[in-house]
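Quick one: structure tokens for this chain, please?
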Amino acid sequence: MTFIHTVMHILTVFLSIILFTLSFAAYQKKKKVKLLFVSLAFFVFAIKEGILAYESLTQPDLMTLFGHEHILNFIILLLFAFGVLRK
């Protein structure tokens, strides 16, 4: 992996943690389940990117999350869909 690739994973972790914090604070204030799903999606995204960042720093030639990354992406999209489509 390249240096820029690793930096992008790290920046994505920080941004998703910020978005999780903001959306979870909004959920606590408004108590709307839609916001809970959105904040959970950001949380799962932060975990996934954290694993990828760790792997790219410690094992740049070996990506152990490869198959599971697609499952996590699907879960993230489902959580966003529940948050957006829920009335």
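The first helix runs from residue 3 to 30.
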